[in-house]
Structure formats: C-alpha cells, structure tokens
Write the structure tokens for this entry.
Amino acid sequence: MLSRDHDIDSITDDSLVNATPKDLIALRQLARSVPLSAVKIISPQSGTYLSPFKGRGMEYEESRPYQPGDDIRNLDWRVTARSNKTYTKQFREERERAVLLWVDNRRPMRFATRGMFKSVQAARAAALLAWSAVQQGDRVGGLIFSGHRHQELRPQNGDRAALRLIRQLCVRSDDNGAGIGDQADVRSPGASHENGSAGEALARLRRVARPGSLVVLISDFRRLGVHAESHIMQLSRHNDVIMLFIYDPLECELPPAGVYRVSDGIHSTILDTADARAREAYREKYQQHLAFLHTLCRRYGMVLITCATDQAIEQVLQQGLRMKRT
C-alpha cells in the first residue's frame, strides 16, 4: 500500500488481497470467452513455419513414404537408411491434451498498489484457464509454489480438476496443509530459498510435462535463478508455452516527485521520489526485465502476455490468446 496525504491508493477488500474459492469458481462463466485453442505461434527457429497450438499430444503411429509437403522434421531416418527410400513418421492425435499451470506464489507476488495483489491476479488467471481447459475437454494439472512449498497436481479431467486447483490456489503461502486427495506438499532443503524455489519448480514441471502439453507460466518472473532459461528452453521444445507476466503499475515507474508512505499493513517506510535520475534508473530496470522476457519468448517461440494488477484478466487473456507472436 502506497499513500500520500493528497493521493491515497489503498487495498481494503480482503478478496483483493487473498484469492477466495467463491470468486475463482464464479469465473467459470467467463471461461468461454478465453479459448485456449485460438493461440498461434510463429517460431523464429523454423523460419516462416506457422505452428498452431497443437491442441492434443501426439503419439507415433507408423512410417510411410515421404510425399512433397511433408514436414522434414518428421523424417524417419532409421527406416530411410534401411530402405534407401525417404520415409516420414505419422502421428496419432491423443484424445486429450494436458494443460499445466505453473503458478508463482512467492513473497514478491503478494504485493500491489492498485487493483489486487499480484498473487490474486495470478490465481484468477489460473482459474480462468483451468475452466476454459475443462470446457474444451482437456486435462488440467499444475504446480503451485512459494518459497517453502511446492504443490504438484497431476492432470485430471472434468470440473473436479478445476476445483482441486482452485482449492490449492486459495491456500496461503504460509499454510502447511495439502488438500484432501491431492499429492502432499513437496519440500526440500533448497525450497526455502526464494531463487531456488522457482528453478526447482521449473525442473519439476519439466518432469511432468508430456510432449504436446500446453504449459502456462504465471509469475512476475523475478529472481528466477541462473538455470531458469535452460528449463524454459527444454519445456518449449516439445510443448506450447505461454508466459503470463503479472506486474503492478508501481513496478513500471515510480510515482511523481514527492514523499510517500509505503506499508505492508504492519510496518511502514518512506519513499522519496524527488531524484529524477533515480526515477529514470528505476524505469530502465523495469524495461530491461520486460525486454528480457520478450527476447526469451522470441528465441524459443513462446507467447508473452502482460497483465497489470488493475486490469481485467479475462480481457487480457482474450486479446493475448488470439494474437500471433512473431
């Protein structure tokens, strides 16, 4: 919360600070306006080849003689070598796709000066995507993590899968209990370190993401750690990946010159923004972070969607999931 005598912007509604099951369940009505199958990616690694979201996982079925127009990346080199004729692999579409939601609930996500906490916006995004996946017949799973907790949810079908995810999204980061019927919390000595937590969560996600899955990373992507890009690269090789960047407007730019009181509801401090050079350096740091995310997505053919804490998440997802990334 940031305030000044003549400019007060405070968060008082508890639902804007903590995600509630009632609010996340109510998002089911909006999920039909968030079609996951509408996204298309143009990968820079494959020239002008247009790669739509696969919609389902693909399993090998057979090999047949190559025909003009076949994707050369699917050539079956073993059969080609044995027969001295060019063969290509054929794949069978699985009946269901897994949609995996990676949700960051670390301490920096529990912050906002406008709208709602970043953690609440992230929870709302995850719930909307889960309901959308369920409505189009996909399986929903995910991984919710904080500095001390990793909650893994194996992909499942139906409303029960979305409700299971919502239940875990509403568990506060300092709580210890796991939901009934879910896999227990996964804890390790390195999980208490904020940086290591994100890297470990990405590594866990890599192990459970089957080829052809849709993976949505929901975070402010701060303090990811040195191995984060490697994990994300590996995920993007065989899955469709969306990076949903959640941020607060204050993180983009400091307020106009003045003296502000900043509080977490218990402690407070003073923020002096009179120094123009400090404000410019602060703005530049944010731009560098955003540029890094854009570069990462271009490099590995992923979709980047940005959402502020005071934006309507359903509208952001509608626009972001329909656009093409170059």
Q: What stands out?
A: Residues 2-43+96-325 form a domain with the Rossmann fold fold (CATH 3.40.50.410). The first helix runs from residue 21 to 26.
